[in-house]
Design a protein that fits this description.
The protein has a domain of 79 residues: IL-4 antagonist (De novo design) like domain (Four Helix Bundle (Hemerythrin (Met), subunit A)). Helix 2 packs antiparallel against helix 3, helix 2 runs antiparallel to helix 5 and helix 4 runs antiparallel to helix 5. It is rod-shaped and about 75 Å long. It is 77% helix and 0% strand. The N and C termini lie far apart (52 Å).
């Protein structure tokens, strides 16, 4: 009886530890590799260069798809995908706006903000 209780406690502690480590993963996400091609795409979009915009937006989308770890990255990937589709249809201002929105999401995501408030 003591052996089964000890074994059960050990198994549960290992399970809870692994769950807590998995829940903490997205807090440390690094989106700097997405920011560089996204910024180049925004610059090309504002300059009116559709070919460079599409190339850089597709590069950012490929990088975002390579690591779908969190909900923030999924939102960013969705916006970049819509931006690439808008660029293919020729709507460069809308595509540029979508990439800018994805960059705002990149800046928002990061570590949690604890405390604060008075």
């Amino acid at each position: 009886m003591k052996l089964t209780m000890t074994l059960s406690a050990l198994i549960l502690s290992v399970a809870f530890t692994s769950v807590s480590l998995a829940a903490g993963g997205p807090m440390n996400e690094d989106l700097s590799s997405l920011a560089i091609p996204a910024q180049k795409a925004v610059d090309a979009g504002k300059a009116g260069n559709a070919a460079v915009f599409q190339t850089e937006a597709e590069a950012a989308l490929a990088e975002a798809r390579a690591k779908l770890d969190s909900a923030a990255q999924q939102r960013i990937t969705g916006k970049l995908k819509r931006a690439v589709e808008a660029a293919k249809t020729g709507d460069l201002p809308a595509a540029t706006q979508l990439v800018e929105e994805s960059m705002r999401d990149m800046k928002k995501s990061g570590g949690p903000k604890f405390g604060g408030g008075s």
